[in-house]
């Protein structure tokens, strides 16, 4: 799945399949400017920062179990968000500090460091990477991902895929080759 935020005409947090199909709103009320987004892949939770409401909130992948982690002035100007173990990590763009927030109760907010021009944050740790099983976009014996001549996108599950073409090409009738 692909998760993303939108604060155009109607602010929301959404998800869709990797090929853009099955687009679903998972949060569309009491939300104004959702920006940074992070996923807890193990427990299937979506965290986001709302810079207008000065809040960090969470829902499960279906948009249920919503609650506010932290709200108020102390988290104004947040950008970037990452989840690791019991904490959320984010960047305060006002004073360029990296903050650590307890994701279970919103307490224990600590400033860890200062970085010039930081706008995003990522946690790279082996435990944050899920094991990859075989999937529909694996490279075939001819070196083509999922048998697609240009782009292979996972569809509704890891066994299904959709082929797409680069700009200027059209998908052939076989659904795999681009012309």
Annotation keywords:
179 residues; Neuraminidase; mainly beta; four-stranded antiparallel β-sheet; Cueball_EGF_LRP_Nidogen; 6-blade_b-propeller_TolB-like; elongated; LDLR_classB_rpt; Wnt-protein binding; Laminin; 2 domains; Wnt receptor activity
Task: Provide structural commentary.
- By secondary structure, the chain is mainly beta.
- The protein has 2 domains: 2-128, 6 Propeller (Neuraminidase); 131-178, Laminin, CATH 2.10.25.10.
- Helix content is 0%, strand content 39%.
- The chain has no helices and 13 strands.
- The strands form 4 sheets. Strands 4-5-6-7 form a 4-stranded antiparallel β-sheet, with no helix packed on it.
- A hairpin with a 4-residue loop joins strand 9 and strand 10.
- It is elongated.
- The two termini are 28 Å apart.
- The mean pLDDT is 89.
- LDL-receptor class B repeats lie at residues 1-43, 44-87.
- InterPro entries: 6-blade_b-propeller_TolB-like, Cueball_EGF_LRP_Nidogen, LDLR_classB_rpt.
- Keywords: Lipoprotein, Receptor.
SSE layout:
Blueprint: E1 2-6, E2 12-16, E3 24-27, E4 34-40, E5 45-50, E6 55-60, E7 67-71, E8 78-84, E9 87-92, E10 97-102, E11 110-114, E12 151-154, E13 161-164
Q: What is the CATH H-level superfamily of the largest domain?
A: TolB, C-terminal domain
Poorly predicted segments: none
Provide the structure class.
mainly beta
CATH topology of the largest domain: Neuraminidase
The CATH first-level class of the largest domain comes to Mainly Beta
The biggest beta sheet reads: 4 strands, antiparallel
């Amino acid at each position: 799945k692909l998760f993303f935020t939108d604060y155009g005409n109607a602010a929301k947090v959404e998800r869709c399949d990797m090929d853009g199909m099955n687009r679903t709103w998972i949060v569309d009320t009491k939300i104004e400017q959702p920006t940074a987004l992070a996923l807890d892949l193990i427990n299937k939770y979506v965290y986001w920062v709302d810079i207008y409401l000065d809040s960090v909130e969470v829902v499960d992948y279906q948009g249920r179990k919503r609650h506010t982690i932290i709200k108020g002035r102390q988290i104004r100007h947040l950008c970037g968000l990452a989840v690791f173990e019991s904490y959320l990590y984010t960047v305060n763009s006002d004073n360029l500090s990296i903050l650590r927030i307890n994701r279970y109760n919103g307490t224990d907010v600590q400033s860890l460091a200062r970085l010039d021009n930081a706008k995003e944050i990522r946690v790279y740790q082996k435990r944050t990477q899920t094991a990859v099983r075989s999937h529909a976009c694996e490279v075939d014996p001819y070196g083509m991902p999922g048998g697609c001549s240009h782009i292979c996108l996972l569809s509704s599950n890891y066994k299904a895929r959709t082929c797409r073409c680069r700009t200027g090409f059209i998908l052939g009738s076989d659904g795999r080759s681009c012309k």
